[in-house]
Amino acid sequence: MRPDFSAWRPHTTPVSLRERLRSAAGALVGILVTGTVCHLAVGDRAALPALIAPMGASAVLLFAVPSSPLAQPWSILGGNAVAALVGVALAALVPQPFVAAAAAVALAVGLMMTLRCVHPPSGAVALTAVLGGPAIRDLGFGFVLWPVAANSVLLLAVALAFNNLAGRSYPHRPIAAAAERDAAPSRSGSGFEAADIDAVLVEHDQLLDIDRRDLEAILRQAEIRSYRRRAGLATCASVMRRDAVAVSPGAPIGDALGLMRMRGAEALPVTDERARVLGLVTQADMLDKPAWDRAGPRLGLARRLSLTLGRGRAPHGSVEDIMTAPVASLSPEAPLADAVRLMARTGLHHLPVVGPEGRLMGLVAQSDLLVALLAEASGPRPAAPPGAA
Hints:
Blueprint: H1 17-42, H2 54-64, H3 73-93, H4 97-115, H5 121-131, H6 134-139, H7 142-165, H8 194-204, H9 212-231, H10 253-263, E1 267-271, E2 277-282, H11 283-288, E3 291-293, E4 296-298, H12 301-311, H13 336-346, E5 350-354, E6 360-365, H14 366-378
Antiparallel strand pairs: 1-2, 3-4, 5-6
Helix pairs in contact: 1-2, 1-7, 2-5, 2-7, 3-4, 3-5, 3-7, 4-5, 9-13, 13-14
């Protein structure tokens, strides 16, 4: 039987030619600037090396994979400093060079994992401190400051400038904190919770070269894509409630409550006189924002003061004082997956569907959305909800 070497080749994520060129250019600029500045600082004195070899490995991380936890500022600064300190100490304490080198790398790895500053090139820093020759040994603990700290700080400064000028996020901000924030809280009803990921990572018990928050965001975005695939060509127009009743922003809170009770509605779109959506008032808004007494809902003193300070005028106890605004909306042509994503992002269970000029056309309810998604996945679609086309 022929041996299978497929596992020897890593299955890395695909990157464009533009990204590969950008990474190479960053490494070029980083090493060139770091080496040049350090050489100008020390001149040609052999006792003080201008640039050490581990910086080449650091450049790979900082410019080729700047999103890696191993490439973050604390990783390079803390990791290189720890490794240099350990290497210099063991070089002085252990007379056998290779024993000292092995012990220095092992201790540096353990300390970096404990201090959460793992940086693979730091292993080479520890080796350099032990096996770098007389010029390095003569520096003693000065090796930590020069060239290790100086090289690390300069390379990091170039990485900060280059990556951000090139349109990258560095220090890395997780996917969940950028763009659409598709990583939904557990109340959205997604298939897994953040605690599930944490539990699996604990069971896995290995250091992964990916930000834990990036991992969660990627999984949630994949979940959204699976919804889109299962939803097929179904759109919001096919499930929206066209008989949704709107309320004006100036309507008293009690009137909106009465309308919700009469219609059995869990949410009411708030529109102006031209039917343009201004917000949404939900059961949660009714319960959480007004104060309640025997006469019904009213604005409490704290909310009145907050609204007065925020608007510069006194509130009137109307719908606009408790509504959720601005509120995300959908177009009739939007796929059901868009509604899933918006509900996951906002935590709302109802979303208005708007047409030209933002005018109300209907309301998508989470319950109707789930029925439609299940129908798409299992076979023929059930009858449309009341008021839906």
